[in-house]
């Protein structure tokens, strides 16, 4: 398990605190921690990227920051911006999965192969790719071209490697004084640790209960399934 530096834990504490203030679930907060770890090593490398305009905890570019308020050099502004973006990406992902369940052979999101999220891409992988490549990369499509494949592979590699983002996010959650994970005596296994292991999360969106089931395949990829309980009438 990685031992987080003081700077990393301080950044993680901000991500957790703001996530709790914004009523985010632990699953969503862990995703935010993982992306920050991959992008800037949880704030240790948040200075301006020497090869691009990216900077800050989430390495926003000039173009991807222009629709946000405040300064991306301010940790709190950058963290809130990411959570706002993450909500939009989650909505898109859930909308696609719900449409696929209702009408697996058609539907407005399914008419073009360019608008299909490839099978096996989990919600947090989708969130990372949309953040990494820009929220409007290739419109609202998700082509499996080189750039998209590269983003997915970056996330999977940096999340699942020893001392990677999965372990760092667990460590950060457990070390945060107000986190329920602090009560866990040892690291909770990630779904990526063992083939066939299942992680289930449940949350409410617009009055609809959404349950997410992530299952790890032997090759390390993740299957992602959603089920919906409609509003009571």
Characterization of this structure:
By secondary structure, the protein is an alpha+beta fold. The chain has one domain (6-229). It is built from seven helices and three strands, in the order H-H-H-H-H-H-H-E-E-E. The protein has a three-stranded antiparallel β-sheet, covered by helices on one side. Strand 1 and strand 2 form a beta hairpin.
Describe this protein with a few key phrases:
233 residues, alpha+beta, three-stranded antiparallel beta sheet, 43% helix
Mean pLDDT: 76
Count of distinct strands: 3
SSE topology string? HHHHHHHEEE
Rg, Cα atoms, Å: 17 Å
Spatial separation of the terminal alpha carbons: 48 Å
Low-confidence stretches: 137-141, 181-199
Secondary structure tally, helices: 7
Strand content: 5-15%
Q: How much helix, percentage-wise, in residues?
A: 40-55%
Specify the overall morphology.
globular
Largest sheet features: 3 strands, antiparallel
Order the strands across the largest sheet as they lie in space: 1-2-3
Domain count: the total is: 1
């Amino acid at each position: 398990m990685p031992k987080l530096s003081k700077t990393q834990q301080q950044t993680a504490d901000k991500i957790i605190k703001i996530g709790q203030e914004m009523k985010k679930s632990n699953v969503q907060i862990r995703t935010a921690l993982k992306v920050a770890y991959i992008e800037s090593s949880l704030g240790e490398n948040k200075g301006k990227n020497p090869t691009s305009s990216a900077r800050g905890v989430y390495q926003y570019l000039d173009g991807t920051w222009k629709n946000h308020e405040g300064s991306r050099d301010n940790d709190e502004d950058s963290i809130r911006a990411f959570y706002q973006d993450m909500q939009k990406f989650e909505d898109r992902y859930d909308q696609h999965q719900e449409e696929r369940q209702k009408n697996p052979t058609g539907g407005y999101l399914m008419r073009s192969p360019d608008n299909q999220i490839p099978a096996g891409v989990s919600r947090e992988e989708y969130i990372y790719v949309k953040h990494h490549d820009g929220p409007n990369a290739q419109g609202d499509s998700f082509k499996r071209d080189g750039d998209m494949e590269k983003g997915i592979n970056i996330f999977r590699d940096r999340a699942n490697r020893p001392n990677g983002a999965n372990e760092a996010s667990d460590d950060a959650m457990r070390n945060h004084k107000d986190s329920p994970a602090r009560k866990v005596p040892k690291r909770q296994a990630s779904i990526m640790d063992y083939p066939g292991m299942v992680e289930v999360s449940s949350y409410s969106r617009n009055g609809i209960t959404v349950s997410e089931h992530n299952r790890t395949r032997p090759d390390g990829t993740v299957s992602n399934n959603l089920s919906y309980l409609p509003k009571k009438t």
